[in-house]
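Sorry to interrupt, but I need a hand with the structure work. It will help me judge whether the discrete encoding reads sensibly. Write everything out right here, beneath this request:
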Amino acid sequence: MKPTTSDAPVVTADFRCTPAVFRHAEVLLAELLRSPYPADKVVAGYFRQHRQLGHAERGFVAEAAFAVLRQRRTLTARCGEDVTSRRLLLAWLACGQGLNRRQLEPLLSESEQKWLATVKAVKVADLPPAVRLDLPDWLFDALSDQYGDEETATLASALNRPAPLDLRVNSLKTDRQTALARLTADGWPAMPCAHSPLGIRLLGKPALSRHPLFLDGHLEVQDEGSQLLGFLLQPKRGEMVADFCAGAGGKTLLLGALMRSQGRLYAFDVNEQRLARLKPRLARSGLSNVTPVRIDSERDVKIRRLAGKLDRVLVDAPCSGLGTLRRNPDLKWRQTPDSVAELAVKQAAILAAAANLLKSGGRLVYATCSLLQAENEAIVDAFLAARPGFVVESAQEILAGQQILVDCGDRLRLTPHRHGTDAFYAAVLTRQ
């Protein structure tokens, strides 16, 4: 039997979902589950095709789909043998949002009403640990080896919650107190981030791209943990600095602001499209010391020409991204032990090439947004064994010297359950 066609709304925590809007969530989720592309790109493409959806409708559709990606294993276990995007969403509404059968009635067929009772009867506590924590088996095993079972459960719970929206104040144009006052006056509740002196955390997810402070380059979107990487590098005015894997330039913009737009800052990346996205951000920022450079690889002649000339280098290495599961839950189902092993080879090569840029006494920060030792400690330890002219400096002491007090260790390790940020690893290396 087909679902009912009633237009009566289904009320979730903060949205009244009609069957028509639910259908959009169902179609989008089905596309996400079969697409080889990153979830954020699939969602953006879907909304471009359905511009009639309003802001609140888009918010529900995207969050419903992402919630299912976060809880995919437990919801699949609840659904039984006939697992479809529709049933996964219904299971999420019933179990994740706590809606009862009467509230869901506008969405349910007669057979689904009976099925829903079996869904709610499943005891999650009886499921295997990896299923219960919504992790693939290999990732659960890796994290348990690193953190132990108890902390892995706490970490997984934090990774399965949506991330807050963090902003970074452009210190060339304003200060945090002024920006906070403006946001509050405009009815946007916000608070200072706990650790980054330039960080602001919005309480909610408004349409930031329309706000004058964003349009004028006073604010940029950047997770608080990512901001701390710039303070670890600590670039100075007049220095020669490189963001070795610049991407769309979020960290580049922070480094340029810390340099007060003085000196030279290279933004290297192999992807022309990513660097193209940096250009409008540069125009908004007011920076004049940034030189975007597309390279073919870490062995590019443009890199070799700068050997031994730079004061500081940031290597935000391409990685599994497993520290960003709050924002990108699809990554835990995409990555595999083989893909992590392939990334580790690339990370080691990039770190070795970037280190050649440093002059004597120069500082390099190797960072990832990964939770895995294979992408973090293992890469740095192998590098240090091969390059005895480099030493590790204490990340915690470098931050404390800037009045940034965060319990992160000598090699910075941030996690959402301990620090409220995405998960990051960073090692500060000095060339002697």
The chain has four domains: 10-127, 128-160, 165-221, 225-431. Residues 225-431 form a domain with the Rossmann fold fold (CATH 3.40.50.150).
